[in-house]
Amino acid sequence: MGGIGVGMGTGAAGAPVRRHPDWIRARMPSGDTYQDLRRTLGSLNLNTVCAEAICPNLGECWEQRTATVMILGDTCTRACGFCNVKTGRPTWFDADEPRRVAEAVAYMNLDHVVVTSVARDDLPDGGASVFADTIREIRRTSPGMGVEVLIPDFNGDEAPLRVVMEAGPDILNHNLETVRRLQQPVRKRARWDRTLGVLERARAYAGEYGHVVHTKSSLMVGLGETREELTECFEALRAVDCDILTVGQYLRPSLQHLPVERYYHPDEFAEMKTEALAMGFRHVESAPLVRSSYHARDQVPDAEARALRRRATIAADGRVIPGA
Fold first, then answer.
1. Would you report the helix, strand and coil content of the chain in percent, each value rounded to 5?
2. Are 74 and 93 in contact (CB under 8 A)?
3. Is the pTM of this model over 0.85?
4. Any bridge partners for residue 70, and if so which?
5. Region for 204 from its dihedrals, namely left if φ exceeds 0, alpha if ψ lies in -120 to 50, beta otherwise
6. Distance CA 142, CA 67 (A)
7. What does the alpha-carbon distance between residue 70 and residue 243 come to, in Å, rounded to a whole number?
8. How far apart are CA 206 and CA 72, in angstroms?
9. DSSP collapsed to 3 states, 36-90
10. Contact 182, 224 (CB under 8 A)
């Protein structure tokens, strides 16, 4: 979802760029755990979508020992109108990346990790095998850690999705991003029905492999959609049994990205959360600065108990939790 936007300035057509309202205030990253994770990720040459997408919640999530690692490089084959991640022709591929990611995650002793990637339409399986290998390596080196994957659509192909689901993530996240009418300008090469199909098939495949997996999706608001269209999104996601939803304000990363059409008030986000929960979503995060991975750890069943068991195991082994 969109990163931190710009303040007052002038757009490409000379129109003024509106200043954020008072309720759009990101906390500056700080704290021992944040600093430790920042140094560790830098030393291990790992990308995070937290940094690449200029996420406003970076400090809060890292302090809660949750990080979103971006595999398969930092160059995306798509050019979505809202996204701050670099686009172009990727050259990165490292068969050893799953092991390196798992070792870094184990060293940092995260309570929960989200693994995402740029879109890699240049790869035969879209990177699905790297996702699966990364999940398995994390399971091997960090038993009990919550593992969520935020995946691309793999162009709707079933085989790559099966590869990911067989590895058994706790949460399968694939973002709808916006309403049906705005899919083309916002997501360009993605498709509304394709996204819903990914979420529906993911749950079915998980059942075939005997895994309990929750599905999750995210929406940005402020791109020109109506409340009625957002309700249609909620209904469509529930129709494919998606049970976790996040809703946040789109914030323009630069003047080259889509403009913000409207800022939603916090009360409107609260109303959307009430509406979505009434439809049957198991967990809903809805607030101006919410992003796809916000409070991700808390969305895994028995998250707190898992974290306590992991920390007890680490302590029994004589290891030290960095930043703790």
1. 40, 15, 45
2. no
3. no
4. 47, 116
5. alpha
6. 15
7. 24
8. 24
9. HHHHHHHHCCCEEHHHHCCCCCHHHHHHCCEEEEEECCCCECCCCCCCCCCECCC
10. yes
Q: Which two tokens stand for residue 170?
A: 């706790």
Q: How far apart are CA 50 and CA 138, in angstroms?
A: 19
Tens of pLDDT along the chain (324 residues) come to 443 333 333 444 444 555 778 877 766 655 666 677 677 666 666 666 555 555 666 656 666 667 788 899 888 888 787 777 788 888 888 889 999 899 888 887 778 889 999 889 999 999 999 999 999 999 999 988 889 999 999 999 999 999 999 999 999 999 999 999 999 889 888 899 999 999 999 999 999 999 989 999 999 999 999 999 999 999 999 999 999 999 999 988 888 888 999 999 999 999 999 999 999 999 999 999 898 776 666 777 665 555 556 556 655 665 554 444
Q: Distances in Å between the alpha carbon of 196 and those of 153, 222, 261?
A: 10, 21, 25
Residue type at position 105:
V
Map residue 60 onto helix, strand or coil: helix
Separation between Cα atoms, residue 105 and residue 127, nearest integer Å: 20
